[in-house]
């Protein structure tokens, strides 16, 4: 049967779910494409070549069993496909929506190299898991036998949520502490609904809460309790805060009104989508309606900002990036979506200063050229002499990436070890910090990265914490 359903890539062309017309999708924050209908999803899964060395799985941080669940999908065995996909990922339908598949699984698909177009892995992953939710195949999280030990997790982003799920299944009492009023971290407040609709995130969180995981919202470590307080309260603690400190631009006028941080802007928009009162949005400070918007940066956060500005009714939207298209860090698919929606990209350009009256009204820029490679191997941008130009701008959004916040200071834990980049220093084998029983995972360790890597880190740190907690329980019994 597998021979009849697979290896169809020669006769069946690559087809992603149909996107809504740019003009229509720019009117709302709904996802821009629905999922496949069953025959189409199964047909696209059947294009997989079932190659002996599955580079798609090799290049997936979770090493998902991609060829196997593609085969099950092609055979119409969708429940089995979902269960196999779910066995290695706590959030397959979320990864299917927001992973940069063009750089990971699909970008390393063998039939992509042969010129036939990659299997649409992310869209199939979304299809089978959404189908599972629709049909009630997503089982409740069942806690393991109670161990009498508790874990405190700081941060409710993908690393924190995934670790909580694994540890609760092992029988630990788990409490998640988060400074926001909703769980989910950047899944909830950082990523716009047109990429990840919020009910998709909320149903995952509800599943964890139903399993007895306790969520302490509006809780700031350092304000409501110190790190040492949490260490005394729990048998082990995980730091999974992510990185939220915005990188700065050094240019004259950078503090002018109308120049805002990307995350402030995106949080305001997402809160408005939830129906919250958002004074900074209603005042116009974090609202692009009617404004000439310039977003500075070339990553996925910049793409989220430009596409949000379009939906808010901006008069014009430009993305300013100091390298060229081939060297930008963001997803090329997101760039294409933004261009379809009317965003103008100004490549090889960098801000030199900002003009203002009562608030910003222009960005002064210089044209750039790519020089010798830097320490990361990417060619360093250099200013072209005499190439200055001015772009009108009544809202400037800085999207240059994120660094770690000073957690030793914020947490009242001056001895907590950090790297020279401010990320938490951990032992590579145990994933424990220099503080006994305090672990760390996700972006706060590796720096700003992908959701799929946060889930992988969660899987790994859960194993390390489980081993450490078992040893601790054994030692306590022997000492009793």
Structural class by secondary-structure content? alpha/beta
Number of helices: 20
Q: Bin the helical content.
A: 25-40%
Shape: globular
Please mark out the parts with pLDDT under 50 across 5 or more consecutive residues, or reply none.
none
Question: Main β-sheet, in a few words?
Answer: 5 strands, parallel
**Amino- and carboxy-terminal Cα gap:** 60 Å
* Portion in beta strands: 15-25%
Q: What is the residue-mean pLDDT, rounded to a whole number?
A: 96
Radius of gyration: 23 Å
Q: Order of strands in the sheet with the most strands?
A: 3-2-1-4-15
Tell me the number of strands: 15
Q: How would you describe this structure in keywords?
A:
36% helix; alpha/beta; 480 residues; 15 strands; five-stranded parallel beta sheet; single chain
Protein described:
It is a single chain. It is built from 20 helices and 15 strands. It is globular and about 75 Å long. The chain starts with a helix and ends with a helix.
Condensed summary:
This protein has 480 residues and is an alpha/beta fold. The protein contains 20 helices and 15 strands. The strands form 4 sheets. Strands 3-2-1-4-15 form a 5-stranded parallel β-sheet, with helices on both faces.
Which helices and strands occur, and which strands form pairs?
Elements: H1 2-5, H2 22-25, H3 38-45, H4 55-58, H5 66-74, H6 78-86, H7 92-98, H8 110-113, H9 121-134, E1 150-154, H10 158-169, E2 173-177, H11 186-189, H12 198-210, E3 214-216, H13 227-233, E4 236-239, E5 245-246, E6 259-261, H14 262-274, H15 279-282, E7 292-296, H16 300-311, E8 316-320, H17 332-340, E9 344-346, E10 349-356, E11 360-373, E12 379-392, E13 395-398, E14 402-403, H18 407-410, E15 438-440, H19 443-446, H20 451-479
Parallel strand pairs: 1-2, 1-4, 2-3, 4-15, 6-13, 7-8, 7-13, 8-9
Antiparallel strand pairs: 5-14, 10-11, 11-12
């Amino acid at each position: 049967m597998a021979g009849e359903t697979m290896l169809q890539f020669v006769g069946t062309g690559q087809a992603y779910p149909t996107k809504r017309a740019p003009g229509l999708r720019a009117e709302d924050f709904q996802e821009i494409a629905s999922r496949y209908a069953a025959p189409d999803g199964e047909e696209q899964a059947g294009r997989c070549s079932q190659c002996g060395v599955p580079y798609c799985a090799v290049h997936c941080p979770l090493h998902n069993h991609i060829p196997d669940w593609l085969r099950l999908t092609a055979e119409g065995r969708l429940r089995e496909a979902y269960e196999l996909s779910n066995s290695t990922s706590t959030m397959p339908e979320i990864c299917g929506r927001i992973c940069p598949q063009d750089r990971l699984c699909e970008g390393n698909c063998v039939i992509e190299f042969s010129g036939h177009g990659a299997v649409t892995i992310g869209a199939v992953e979304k299809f089978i898991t959404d189908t599972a939710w629709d049909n009630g195949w997503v089982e409740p999280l069942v806690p393991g036998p109670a161990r009498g030990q508790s874990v405190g997790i700081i941060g409710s982003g993908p690393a924190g949520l995934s670790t909580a799920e694994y540890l609760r299944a092992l029988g630990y009492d788990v409490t998640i502490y988060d400074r926001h009023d909703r769980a989910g971290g950047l899944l909830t407040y950082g990523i716009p609904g047109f990429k990840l609709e919020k009910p998709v995130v909320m149903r995952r969180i509800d599943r964890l809460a139903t399993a007895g995981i306790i969520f302490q919202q509006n809780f700031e470590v350092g304000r409501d309790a110190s790190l040492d307080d949490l260490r005394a309260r729990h048998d082990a603690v995980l730091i999974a805060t992510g990185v939220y400190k915005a990188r700065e631009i050094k240019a004259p006028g950078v503090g002018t009104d109308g120049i805002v941080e990307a995350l402030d802007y995106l949080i305001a928009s997402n809160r408005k989508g939830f129906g919250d009162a958002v004074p900074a949005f209603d005042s116009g400070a974090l609202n692009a309606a009617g404004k000439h918007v310039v977003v500075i940066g070339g990553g996925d956060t910049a793409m989220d900002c430009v596409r949000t500005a379009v939906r808010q009714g901006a008069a014009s939207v430009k993305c300013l990036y100091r390298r060229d298209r081939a060297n930008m860090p963001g997803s090329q698919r997101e760039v294409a979506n933004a261009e379809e929606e009317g965003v103008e990209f100004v490549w090889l350009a960098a801000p030199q200063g900002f003009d203002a009256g009562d608030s910003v009204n222009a960005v002064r820029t210089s044209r750039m050229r790519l020089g010798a490679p830097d320490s990361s191997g990417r060619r360093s941008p250099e200013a072209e002499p005499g190439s200055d130009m001015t772009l009108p701008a009544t809202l400037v959004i800085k999207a240059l990436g994120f660094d770690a916040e000073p957690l030793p200071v914020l947490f009242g834990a001056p001895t907590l070890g950090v790297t020279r980049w401010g990320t938490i220093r951990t032992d590579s084998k145990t994933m424990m910090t220099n503080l006994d029983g305090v672990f760390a995972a996700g972006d706060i360790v590796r720096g700003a990265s992908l959701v799929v890597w946060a889930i992988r880190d969660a899987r790994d740190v859960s194993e390390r914490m489980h081993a450490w907690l078992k040893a601790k329980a054994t030692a306590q019994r022997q000492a009793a």
